[in-house]
Every structure is written in C-alpha cells, then in structure tokens.
Amino acid sequence: MSMRKKTFNSELTTGFGEKSTQTAGRFYRKDGKPNIERKGIRFLDQLSWFHTMLSLPRWKFTLWMVIPFLAINCIFGFIYYTVGIDHLAGAVGGTSLDRYLQAFFFSAQTFTTVGYGHVSPSGILTSSIASFESFLGVLSLAVASGLFYGRFSKPRSFLKFSDIALIAPYKDGRALMFRTVPYKNNHLMDGEVKLTLGMRVKYREEEKNEFYNLKVEISEINTLILNWTIVQVLNEESPLYGISIDDTKHAHAELIVYLKAFDEGFSNTVIARTSYTADEMIEGAKFRPMYSAAESGDTTILHIDRLNSYEKVSLPELMPAEAG
Description:
Elements lengths: L42 H4 L2 H7 L2 H26 L4 E2 L6 H16 L8 E2 L2 H30 L5 E3 L3 E6 L2 E10 L5 E16 L2 E9 L5 E5 L3 E6 L11 H6 L3 E10 L4 E10 L3 E3 L1 E3 L3 E3 L6 E3 L7 E3 L7 H4 L1
Parallel strand pairs: 4-12
Antiparallel strand pairs: 1-2, 3-5, 4-5, 5-9, 6-7, 6-8, 6-10, 10-11, 13-16, 14-15
Helix pairs in contact: 2-5, 3-4, 3-5
C-alpha cells in the first residue's frame, strides 16, 4: 500500500529481495539471525558443523558433547563385551550387566586415554580395537577442545535489546524508541547503531519490498555502560511520519537494527542485531528508568530486569496536515 507523502530513496544494498511475493515472514529473527532457510544444495554442502556448534545454546552444546561420548563408549563397550571380557586382563566375572559395565568403563578410560591400569587389553584383536578407539578419542578430544575454546573466545556483544519498541512523546512531537543494555562486565566503546526500515509498498499495482535508512537522533556513543535508548524522530524526514500502527501492520513493516561496538576485553569489534515488527511496537508509551542511585550514594545500580518496563502516556496530537 502506498503511504508516503514524499519520495524517499530506497536502500538497494540490504541483501533482501525486492519482490514481496518471493519473501515471507520477518527478515530477521529476534536473536538477530536472518530468517532464511536454504534449499537446493546437496546435504553435505548444507552442513556447517563449526558455525552451528559455536552458535548453539549452552544446553544443546552440552548435550552434543555428552550424548556422542556416551554413545561411542556404549558401542565400544558392546564390542569388548562381544569379544569377551576374558580378553580384558583384570576384568572379573559376574552378571551380564556387570561384565558389560566393566567393558563400558574400560572403553571410557581408553577413549579419554586415562588408562587407570586395573583393566588392560589382552590379545591382538582386543588390543587393535583399543588402539583404534584411543586414536578416535584423541581426535575427538582435539575437536571438543577446539569447540570449547572457540565458544569461550568468540567475541560477543553481550547486549540485550528490549522486546518492544515504543512510539513515545519526544520534544514537541513523537519518536520511535527502543533500548539496549550490556548485561556482562564487559566495557563497550565507540558504539554505533544503524536502522533500516523494510516494508511492502504498492507501486503501479504491484507490491515491492523497499528498505529505507532511518536517521537516528544519536547514532554514535563513546562508551556504553548504562542502557542506551535509541531514538528515531518521527518527523518529515522519516518514512514513518504520519503513519499509524495499523498502516505499518498492513505494510508488514520491520525495523532492522544493526549495532557494533569495540570491546576492550576481546580487543575486537562486536556486533549485535535484532528487529521489530509492527506487532512489537506499542503506541503511546514511554520507558521507565533502568538505573538508580544506591542507598550508600556512592554507586549506580543498573536494573537489567527493567529493560522492557514502560508506562502508558498520551501522545501529542498530530497537526491536520500531518494526519493527512
């Protein structure tokens, strides 16, 4: 639908398609990852284990470490059990479960190259299996160590964005606001934010995806210690000027946020992304303060849990010419 009172230059370098009929859903998910699913390539070419393992949540990464370890040792334990624990010097008899558990724990000791010495392989076949498992274990531990180090040392922004964006009173008019805050003890410097508005615009009876760079009231900040409220003034220079929330919903509007800063701890540039759809924008509200002075009066308390805290307020009326 056509909603613009003046012509704005559309950004052509976003990387997203122009035809609205060929795209669906939001462009970026809330975690900052592109909402893209790749098809039409071979299965092996789709796999990117290193990038996947680095980006997995901690609980999933832990499961990927523990479950294969248990599975491999269950398999090798079954192999030793099948060969016979009489080929494992030091192993004692017992029930089938006792014999299998001894084979399992011997496998775990071999796989991790611990080798306590209580049980050892006896015979060419068992020794060959143990040698292969030991080799496999060294390779697996090397891979696991690399993944652990990669996750630990990967530069991260450790920034949280508010789940919502607000249309709030600002000076004598209105502004679109959202905020971000660092939640770790990292020190971010030279922060810079860029906003891109994506929406479907009707042009000659055809809907197209168009993208507009939005001007931010303060686009750069020297240091990011407390929260940062990012403000896009809704004036005549904004494509959102005079447009209601319902209009943005009909246009499938999405505010794409790109923020980068320099982290002193990593000594590297870190990046954070997110996006806001019209359903995540609240009209007539303002954020509550996130920080306050401590009772001692010698420090400032930053309340991370207040990131999404807001209160409803009245918006200044639009002029008739603005309301269109």
